[in-house]
């Protein structure tokens, strides 16, 4: 099964294909990056996303040949992945990151200080296979893996589950939970940012809970917000310890809404960091090069949310986080490491937020 550009369900009012004109490769949009689309606040946009796995230089820049080694037929390799692999001028391999990222979407009325609400409305798999890779000494155990070059593990989708085969006839089967690793806004910088480290702009936050039905809040840094997405995953364990997770292409539909003033603070209580939400949890994030400091940042973000949103005294909020909240390591492989906090909404069902 492949979901080619223009085929199958396109759920948004606007549609952005992954053509060479509509993507950045290895860099994220900044304020001066031309927009691929301009939409009104509240508009729905469908993006075709392409995984970088299979098209990179250390894989031969030929996804047909690369995935053919694992038994994938040429007709099952997406046309947009093939085309991007043939446009190396899009990426400086010595300077840029690996990710294929959409060109920015300009949302009318968005200004610095606002919040962009990004609702993940739907995710469709575009292929039935993908890859986990370990390379560059960037995993959690670089002294043990990929010592002589990249190591690639092929993953398939079978009966709705992810499958990694090993030995002669054995396999590990695991649930699929698609999400976009990169969701962000344009940075207020003179040059586009590297695609690997996440930050206040969002970007490569790699939080596995932010799939269909989730919401991400991003502090707007430039006029029009410049929303972008990429780094599609079919599944990821917290930590993403091997460097990548199950990387494979998705078609994603989002609703992009500008929140201003009181509406922004009511949504996320703070404009300083990206913030997530699902039907069950609020998800403050902490980001830092040092994992211990990322943990501290996540605790501070969670405290700010509880004290501002619910009027909790700080000592009570601190006690609640220790007694009831879960702090999880999002990823330890993206230069800037991530910790996210899961605060159950049910715990505050009887409380009145400010």
Automatic annotation (TrEMBL):
SUPFAM superfamilies documented for this protein: Acetamidase/Formamidase-like
Molecular function, one GO term: hydrolase activity, acting on carbon-nitrogen (but not peptide) bonds, in linear amides
Pfam families, A to Z: FmdA_AmdA
Protein name: Acetamidase/formamidase family protein
């Amino acid at each position: 099964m492949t979901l080619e550009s223009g085929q199958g369900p396109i759920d948004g009012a606007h549609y952005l294909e992954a053509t060479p004109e509509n993507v950045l490769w290895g860099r994220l949009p900044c304020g001066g990056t031309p927009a691929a689309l301009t939409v009104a606040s509240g508009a729905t946009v469908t993006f075709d996303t392409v995984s970088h796995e299979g098209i990179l230089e250390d894989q031969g820049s030929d996804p047909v040949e690369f995935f053919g080694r694992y038994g994938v037929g040429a007709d099952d390799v997406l046309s947009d992945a093939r085309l991007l692999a043939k446009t190396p001028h899009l990426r400086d391999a010595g300077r840029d990151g690996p990710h294929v990222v959409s060109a920015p979407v300009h949302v009318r009325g968005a200004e610095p200080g606002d919040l962009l609400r990004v609702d993940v409305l739907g995710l469709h798999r575009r292929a039935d296979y993908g890859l986990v890779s370990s390379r560059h000494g960037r995993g959690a155990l670089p002294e043990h893996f990929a010592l002589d070059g990249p190591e690639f593990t092929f993953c398939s989708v079978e009966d709705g589950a992810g499958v990694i085969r090993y030995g002669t006839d054995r396999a590990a089967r695991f649930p699929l939970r698609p999400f976009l690793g990169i969701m962000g806004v344009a940075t207020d910088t003179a040059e586009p940012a590297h695609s690997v480290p996440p930050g206040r702009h969002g970007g490569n936050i790699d939080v596995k809970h932010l799939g269909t039905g989730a919401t991400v809040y991003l502090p707007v840094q430039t006029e029009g917000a410049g929303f972008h997405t990429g780094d599609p995953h079919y599944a990821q364990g917290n930590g993403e310890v091997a460097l990548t997770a199950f990387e494979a292409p998705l078609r994603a539909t989002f609703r992009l809404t500008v929140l201003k003033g009181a509406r922004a603070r009511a949504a996320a209580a703070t404009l300083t960091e990206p913030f997530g939400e699902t039907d069950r949890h609020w998800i403050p994030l902490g980001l830092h090069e040092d994992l211990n400091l990322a943990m501290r940042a996540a605790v501070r973000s969670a405290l700010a949310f509880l004290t501002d949103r619910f009027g909790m005294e700080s000592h009570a909020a601190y006690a609640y986080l220790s007694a009831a909240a879960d702090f999880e390591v999002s990823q330890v492989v993206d230069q800037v490491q991530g910790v996210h906090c899961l605060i159950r909404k049910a715990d505050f069902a009887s409380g009145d937020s400010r």
